[in-house]
Design a protein that fits this description.
two-stranded antiparallel sheet, Recoverin, domain 1, 58% helix, 3 domains, mainly alpha
């Protein structure tokens, strides 16, 4: 993902921000047609007396995960309902409350709302099958098509799947706007960072072992950016969360782990060569020593005669 960031990250983050901002701009107030089912205070006040104890227990559970700062940055089910309709995301006509179902699916901290991290996660997974489609809004249409074009380039056999080997051999030729974060800085022949490609495959393979489909490839990149750049209270443009500084040095030109690996391998090769030179020197020394001893013995024999 460090290698891909210069190509995709800005566009992906812009779309993520737009999704969150558009959702938050929706009016959060309940209407006669739709109430926020997770508005515990309102539900308790309007509930029959026999149900209030049960609702109070639910409220106490909610209070354990309540963070006022994150709560204010989070969308309630009313906003989610309005946003999903405006975005033209799929709405199951047989579902009684699609917005409540969406919130329940992606409400990781169980506070009854969707903060930026939860809302963006939902925007990717919920729309996984139609990412890049023009049939809906905020479905990562432009960037998903750009990522899809990269997949097509890698899938030279047109099988509908790419392997780690195809990615490793094909991505090195990718044209990027920078020389930073180059996984191939020490050359493909070293195979130093193949674990990064393998990790991507393992995390996203579903349809076929050791391969990713186009859908998995696109969603995998989006989810990776989400994991690296989105927190519970913000969508980050910088590298404060993705830990790049631990992997790169010298203005992001040197892969620290790869450099350490090459340095260790080079040292080991030099030590091995030194051992071989010493072994050759030792053999020559012993050879000369045996020859000198033989000549000495011959000389001594001649003297005695």
């Amino acid at each position: 993902m460090d290698y891909w960031d210069p190509l995709f990250r800005t566009e992906i983050l812009n779309e993520m921000k737009s999704i969150h901002n558009s959702t938050m701009h929706e009016d959060p107030e309940s209407t006669p047609e739709y109430n926020d089912v997770f508005d515990f205070a309102g539900r308790i006040a309007n509930a029959p007396p026999e149900k209030q104890d049960s609702l109070m227990r639910d409220l106490k559970k909610f209070e354990k995960t309540y963070d006022p700062i994150i709560f204010k940055l989070s969308a309630n089910s009313v906003q989610v309902m309005k946003a999903m309709r405006r975005f033209k995301w799929f709405i199951d006509p047989g579902m009684a409350d699609f917005a409540a179902d969406f919130v329940t699916r992606y409400d990781i901290n169980h506070d009854g709302r969707l903060n930026p991290k939860e809302m963006i996660l939902g925007s990717i997974i919920f729309n996984k099958g139609i990412l890049g489609s023009k049939k809906c809004n905020h479905c990562y249409t432009k960037i998903a098509r750009k990522i899809g074009a990269l997949f097509t380039y890698l899938d030279c056999g047109e099988t509908g799947f790419v392997s780690a080997d195809q990615m490793w051999k094909g991505l090195d030729a990718l044209k990027r706007p920078t020389s930073q974060y180059n996984l191939w800085g020490y050359g493909n022949s070293e195979n130093i960072r193949t674990n990064a490609i393998n990790d991507f495959i393992l995390k996203n393979e579903k349809a076929k072992d050791a391969f990713v489909s186009k859908e998995e490839f696109i969603s995998g990149i989006l989810l990776a950016v989400w994991d690296r750049q989105v927190s519970e209270n913000s969508i980050l443009d910088d590298d404060s969360r993705n830990l790049k500084k631990l992997r790169w040095s010298d203005n992001n030109m040197v892969d620290t782990a790869a450099y350490t690996y090459v340095k260790a391998i080079t040292k080991a090769k030099l030590e091995e060569e030194e051992k071989k030179r010493f072994a050759r020197w030792e053999r020559e020394r012993l050879k000369k020593e045996r020859l000198a001893k033989r000549l000495w013995n011959q000389q001594m024999g001649m003297t005695s005669g």
